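Input record (one chain):
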Amino acid sequence: MRVVIQENYEKMSKWAADYIAAKIRNHKEDRPFVLGLPTGSSPLGVYAELVRQCKAGELSFKNVVTFNMDEYVGLPHEHDQSYWYFMHDNFFDHIDIPAENINILNGMAEDLQAECDAYEKKIASYGGIDLFMGGIGVDGHLAFNEPFTSLNSRTGIRDLTTDTMIVNSRFFGNDPSKVPSRVLSVGIGTVTDSKEVLVLINGHNKARALAKTVMGSVSQMWTCSALQMHNGAIIACDEAACGELTVDAYKYFLDIEKKERL
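The corresponding structure, as predicted from the sequence alone:
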């Protein structure tokens, strides 16, 4: 596992955006580059930088296919808290990606399980995901795979914990009762099947989750810990998130990255 520690959120976001942009530009295969994407506050800085690069003519998404991590059940696209709306408002409407290359789970589907099964098949039809960017919750959940979700899980229907609904209520007028209790989410197995996984972890409130991700035991209790088993896992974090790493681990990651830059 590679852990890239940056001074602050802005530098973390710039590093991650530059990494993704380089992967897209260097993609030489005779097929689209397949990119997995998250929602939430963590990737906003990355999206802003990727949009800037696209508008500046430094990067194109015309040969990129995207698959988003999750979507609320029961929220139509036009709802301002749906993840379809979030992605278009913050990213897709500002880049040159063809609309047909965008894939987001449909939380209004008549048959939710069939929707999830079709999503897995569509990912496979492209040869899998080249790079999946993600973020994690304070309890270490990756996508909406809450604690004790199987580390082999695939795309499916998930019930949200009360804690997650309370955290997400800040987007619903601070009223947890307005937060949908079910979501559609890619599984841990879906994410770790990707060739590379780039996870963003920032802020003091994510310090425990970062420590569990890189130093804890592999466990369903911390679904983020599955990344320890992935040969292409990268954690991009800021200094604020490093508060619970051991001094030795912190110094190790800084030393390795310094050598990578030489």
